[in-house]
Each structure stands twice: as structure tokens, then as C-alpha cells.
Backbone:
């Protein structure tokens, strides 16, 4: 290679490095702008969408709980993985509140609740929920309603605080047997990537695309502002990562005795093995009943909320009847 060719090659390399440097500078600049935009948007959302319930201190961090209606037993709804109180507040909670007191809440890091550094497994969630109910002065007896991951949490709660639980409704609940470590880790990684992207405000831009964020029913305007935060995705990642631990803790609870149990299954949930896993849940109690949401996928509270309301109110009535026997 002659001197002229060498000089040309150096020029090309220098030019490439200059352009690469410019791209890096632009990317860093955009990331900084996005991060500032995200913080400003979260501050604005906090003012625009205040929590509908109350913020209650639990061991140094505050959790959101929203109780409506009057009467006993008190229904406590535990949302699924990556979900919080809003999906139950549109139809299910108002309908149940016509009959008895009903509480929805947000696990730490979800919805309006503050994050904490504690493990994100079923045992910790059960302890946290019990402390929240005590500190919020929500009296039992409780009808515990658990959807998806919430079913694992309710399973542990009903065992650890058996004297306070009058009945259980499992709404398309997870079965511990369905949890695998490899899938949990993959989903945790995906949610962690979502959290990283959300930190630079990308989620705020995606929410404006109808294909990604379709319009919501009136009264649920807070959902997307809460969803597209880095905290929400990171909390979901933590919950996915701890799924094997949650499954093991729930699997250790093999029986509720004769505690009234309703298993509500989504007929259109096509997850392989789902019917068998749901049938197994019936064995948790000698006093169990299997109901179906015929026209619903996994998210029954949105797909067919009347089925969720019906199952919950049926359990409330069973508990009330048992008091008079």
C-alpha cells in the first residue's frame, strides 16, 4: 500500500470516527432530553391523577388502598402480575360495593404505591397486604379475591392469616405448576428492557399511538400514565424474577380445609394445560365450586366483569349464610 492510499484510508477512518462520535453525542443528548421529559411528565401526572383512595404507611413506604361500599364480609381484591387497582375499579368494584365493602390496592411499585427494596414474592406480598389492612383499619373477616399472580398471594394469605379469611375466590389464578424459571427470567429481562426504554420517555411517545395504547373507558384515564413509567416496568420485572419463589411458597399451601372456595376460570384462556391447572385448584378446599367466564380470556375483570362480580357476590352470600347457620 503506497503513501497516498494510506492517507486516504486514514481520512476515511477519521471521517467514520467523527460521524460515530456525532451519533453518540446526539444519542446521549436525546437520552438526557428524554429523561428530563419523563421526570417532568411523571410530576405532571401525579398532579393530574391523584390516587382515588388513601396512601397508608407500611414499614416506611406508602401503599395505595381504595375501599368503597359498606357491609361485611370485606372483599379484598389482589390484582395479577404487572397490574393494580385500576382494572378492577371500572366495573367490578362499583358493582360489588352495592352489596358490601370492597377494597382494591396497589402492590409496592405499582399504581399509586411507592416502591420498596423488599423481595417481590408471594410471602412478602401477603405480609405487606396484611400490614396494609391493619394500618388502614380495614376490619375482617375477608373474602380474598386473587387474579392470576394474585391467586398465589391469596393462597399464602389465606394460610398465614386463616382466622381472618372467610372465603376465597380465585379468578383465573396461576397454578404453581405452570411456573418455570426459564420463562420467568425471559419475561423479567423483557420488562427490564422496557424499564430502560421508559426512563428516556419513549413510553410517553408510544402512548400517543392508538395501535399500542387504544382508547380507555371514561374514568380510567390514569391507566396509561401509570403504566408507561420506568417504575411500573421495573416492578413487573421484579415480580417475574421472583415468580419461582412465589410458586414454591403457594405450592407449600396444600389445603384451606373446608374454607369456602370458588374457582372462576376463563373459558377462552388457551394457555396449554390451563383447564387441568384450574381443576387442581379446586382440591385446595373440601368446600369448593368451579365457575366459568364463558366469553372471557385471562383478564376476566375487563373481558367479562359481570362474571367476576357474580362469583364474588356468590361468595359474599355464602359467607353471610354460614353466619346464621
Residues:
Amino acid at each position: 500500500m503506497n503513501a497516498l492510499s494510506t492517507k486516504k484510508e486514514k481520512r476515511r477512518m477519521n471521517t467514520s470516527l467523527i460521524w460515530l462520535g456525532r451519533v453518540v453525542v446526539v444519542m446521549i443528548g436525546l437520552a438526557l432530553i428524554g429523561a428530563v421529559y419523563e421526570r417532568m411528565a411523571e410530576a405532571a401526572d401525579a398532579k393530574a391523577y391523584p390516587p382515588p383512595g388513601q396512601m397508608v404507611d407500611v414499614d416506611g413506604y406508602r401503599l395505595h388502598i381504595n375501599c368503597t361500599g359498606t357491609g361485611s364480609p370485606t372483599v379484598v381484591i389482589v390484582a395479577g402480575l404487572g397490574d393494580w387497582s385500576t382494572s378492577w375499579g371500572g366495573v367490578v368494584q362499583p358493582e360489588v360495593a352495592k352489596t358490601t365493602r370492597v377494597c382494591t390496592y396497589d402492590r409496592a411499585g405499582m399504581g399509586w404505591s411507592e416502591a420498596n427494596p423488599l423481595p417481590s414474592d408471594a410471602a412478602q406480598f401477603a405480609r405487606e397486604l396484611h400490614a396494609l389492612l391493619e394500618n388502614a383499619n380495614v376490619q375482617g373477616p375477608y373474602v380474598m379475591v386473587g387474579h392470576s399472580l394474585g391467586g398465589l398471594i391469596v393462597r399464602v394469605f389465606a394460610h398465614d392469616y386463616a382466622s381472618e379469611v372467610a372465603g376465597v375466590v380465585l379468578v383465573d389464578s396461576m397454578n404453581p405448576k405452570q411456573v418455570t424459571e426459564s420463562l420467568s427470567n425471559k419475561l423479567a429481562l423483557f420488562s427490564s428492557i422496557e424499564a430502560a426504554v421508559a426512563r428516556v420517555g419513549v413510553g410517553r411517545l408510544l402512548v400517543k399511538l392508538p395501535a399500542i395504547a387504544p382508547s380507555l373507558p371514561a374514568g380510567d384515564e390514569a391507566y396509561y400514565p401509570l403504566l408507561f413509567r420506568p417504575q411500573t416496568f421495573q416492578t413487573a420485572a421484579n415480580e417475574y424474577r421472583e415468580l419461582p419463589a412465589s410458586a414454591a411458597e403457594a405450592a407449600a399451601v396444600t389445603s384451606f380445609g373446608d374454607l369456602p372456595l370458588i374457582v372462576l376460570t376463563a373459558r377462552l384462556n388457551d394457555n396449554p394445560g390451563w383447564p387441568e391447572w384450574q381443576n387442581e385448584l379446586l382440591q385446595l378446599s373440601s368446600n369448593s365450586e368451579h365457575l366459568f367466564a364463558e366469553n372471557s380470556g385471562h383478564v376476566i375483570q375487563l373481558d367479562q366483569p359481570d362474571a367476576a362480580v357474580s362469583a364474588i357476590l356468590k361468595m359474599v352470600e355464602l359467607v353471610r349464610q354460614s353466619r346464621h347457620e
DSSP finds 13 helices and eight strands in the chain.
